[in-house]
Each structure stands twice: as C-alpha cells, then as structure tokens.
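Lab notebook, bench 4. We co-purified these components, and the gel suggests they stay together. Before we commit to crystallization screens, I want a quick structural picture of the whole thing.
Request: model the full complex, all chains together.
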Amino acid sequence: MKGTVFVLEDDVAISGLIKVSLDMNDISSKTFSTVKDFLYALVSETPDVALLDIMLPDGSGLDVLKYVKEKHPNVCCIMLSALGKEEDKVHGLSLGADDYVSKPFSVLELTARINAALRRNRALNKKLSVGDLEINLDTMEVFLSGNRLELNRKEFELLKYFMKNAGRVLSREELLTEIWGYEQGETRTLDNHVSRLRKLGVHNLETVFGIGYKFTV
Amino acid sequence: MKGTVFVLEDDVAISGLIKVSLDMNDISSKTFSTVKDFLYALVSETPDVALLDIMLPDGSGLDVLKYVKEKHPNVCCIMLSALGKEEDKVHGLSLGADDYVSKPFSVLELTARINAALRRNRALNKKLSVGDLEINLDTMEVFLSGNRLELNRKEFELLKYFMKNAGRVLSREELLTEIWGYEQGETRTLDNHVSRLRKLGVHNLETVFGIGYKFTV
DNA sequence: AAATTATGTTACAATTGTATTACAATCGTT
DNA sequence: AACGATTGTAATACAATTGTAACATAATTT
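Here is the predicted assembly.
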C-alpha cells in the first residue's frame, strides 16, 4: 500500500471512478461527498493526500484547503475544478494547494499526479523502529543494533509488516495475503522467509503453533 | 545568454518593448498576457527572473508572486504596478517581491534592474553536490572528483534526479514518470541510461533488485 | 509412545529482473 | 532533405531472488 488518499467530491460517479483507479494502483482511499463528512473523518485519521473538489453542497473546497493546510501541513492537497475556473486555480495555489487538475480530467493523469504527490510526501525520512531493529522506508535500510542487514525485497516487506504489527499474532493467511497476495493454497514460502530473517539475526520472531507468527517487543 | 526572464503583462505594447530591450541585452525572455499561460509555462520551465504586472485580466500578479515564491524560491520577482499604488508595493514586498518598478518606467532602468537581479541570482548557488559528484544546474556541467563529464540531456536529468533524492530508493515507476513522463508500460530505457552513467564513472548507483535504483552517499 | 500434524532448514530450479551491446528511430539543425 | 546527435528498442547474456521439494525436527493429539 503506497499511501492514503481522502477524496472530497460530491459527484459519486466521479469519486467512484477515482476510487477504482486508486484501488488498482494499490493506494488506499476514502471518499466523502460533503465538507462535513470530510472534516469529521480528519479528526481520527490523517491522509497523505487530499483530493478536493471546489464546488460542494455544503461549502467550498477552498475553505477546506485552507483548513487542511493549517492543521495538517504535511497533507498534500490536489484541487479539482470545473473547466475554465482559472481564478479558482490561482486562488487555490495561493492558499497552498500543491497541484491542480481541471475537470474533465483523465483518470490516468490524476492517478499519476497522486502518485507523484505520495512520492513527494514520502521524501520525509520515514523510519520505523521496534526494539533493537530499525528500518528506513525510504532507503530500505535495516539496522539491527546499529549494524546494517542486507535484506532483499520480500524479506524487507515481511519484516516491515511484522514491525508495523509488532506484538500482534499474525496468521499465515494474513501474511500470505498481505505480502504475497495469495488468496489461498498451501505453501511453505512463508516459513522459508521467516527462517531467513532469523538466520540474519532477527531474534524476536516467535512462532505461534498452528496459527502463524508474532514479532515480540 | 545571461539568463531567462518570464514577463507577465497584459499590455502587449509594454511587454513587446520589454522583450526587444531584453533581446538586445542578450537576455532570453518569454512573455505571457494571462496568469493561466504564465502558470502553465512554469510547469515545464523555471526562469531566473519573473517580471509581474499586478492587474491582469484573469487574476492578480500578487497571487502569482506568492505562488512563485513558494514553489520556486530561487526565482527573482520584480513587480510592475500603476503609479501611486503604494499599497500594492508594500503588499508585494511583504509577499517576497525582490524589486518594484512603477509604471510608467524607463525601459533602460528596468533592464538595469533585471540585469542586477540576474547577477544576484547567479550568486545563489545553483549547484548540487553529493559525494564526489557536482553538477551545475545552470550550465549543465557535471564534475566527478573535479573532472568534467559530458552528459546529454536525459543523462543529466536522470543524474540530477538521483542526486536530488540521494539515499532514497527510487522505483523504476517513479523514475520513468518523473524523467520520462511514462505512465505505464514496460521499457528497458531506464536500465540503459543507468548503464551509461555507470560507464561514465558514476559509481554510487546501486540497483535495488525488483524495485529500482538508489544513489548512495 | 505412536501417530499425526505443523514447522525448520537446506539445496536447488524456475522464475524474474538486470547489464550491456548493437542497432533503429527520432529529433533538431543546417 | 540530409546530417549528426540523442534517445529508445531488441536481443542476448547474465545475475538475483524466491518458491518448491525433500527431509529433519518439534509440537500436539490419540
């Protein structure tokens, strides 16, 4: 999952289309059709990117933009507007919008811009550390008590998932679907990767017999 | 060529005059008569100096100023305004304008100020260096431990992107969209360019199997 | 304790991804 | 239009990863 996008758009046909495209691109999204719902959702969760329509039934996306930029400056805002409303564009940009897309837009283009925004956002070094392990999501570096470990992609993904869910018991199915995308079927692949991680020195990987594994703190 | 100037001015008589004068002074310029055109041009090219009228048919030069200063802080902005509008002047300077010229102005004086701005701007380092590599964004020169490398445009763009994002793992997807504008599709072009850079001596380009590349420090 | 089931580990093969060369298409000049 | 430079494609060779099979070992159930 590459990030989270909140979509504020009252035309369900449009927001639906966007959602489908984001799903296909492995980007998690939530759609809202009123300013009220949107702001309410912001209380409990902060997305990486906000996609804001300007004309909404209960307010203006420009006001939302202003609010978001004030309260959550790390959220990247992309405005959507009706064709020709160039004054909105200037206004939006001056209020701190990061990008701008005019309707009608190509879903492909929009997705590309969202991807770019997510990338830009990620430029802030994001680290994750649990116990004596520390991983850097940007550089894909892993340190165990300060020493660099060389992991390949699957090993890294798996370790990342373990660390993000440290303490929880993770079933084999969960891991297989999250990391491998397997829906079902029997495989020993997971055991294998766990074994490799252990051999590299990751000691806090407990096996939960009959269920799966647990990354302990 | 001493630099590039973008002129945003809706009176064609004035912008024409400015352009002629700049041409004579070996300064490259592009003129725009609407905010829309101006912002659009900014997407693909960043000038050294922006000359901004304030009253425009589709917006205010002050909004443009704010936007430019935010997104391209190295661009030097000179405001143009009708005589007597002192409040604009104050407002503009508070938004980060570098200089201010009142209409009607002497073309000679304006040109002098632009020259001064270009000189000042040149002083700002437009260099980027990481490890033993140094690139000059103006002249497109590249030095590897002091020795000049000859790169062509794509090689330069790619290296620049790598250096700007040194340390981060850059996916093939990201590089292809950022440098090539590809939205999807499979290509070996990227591998090729990386290979060329390496052959030229750029040694700190790591391949991250299954994902992309990383420019290490 | 034997039988059954689940996991650990190793080695290897299949798969997938990359490097590099040579060449073709394209672009920008003249 | 023709030239040279640049940039993308195809093809080949090569390398890394990752899933599978096989067998060993451990845990659970009977």
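The first strand of chain A starts at residue 4 and ends at 8. Worth comparing against the SEC data before the next meeting. The mean pLDDT of chain A is 88.
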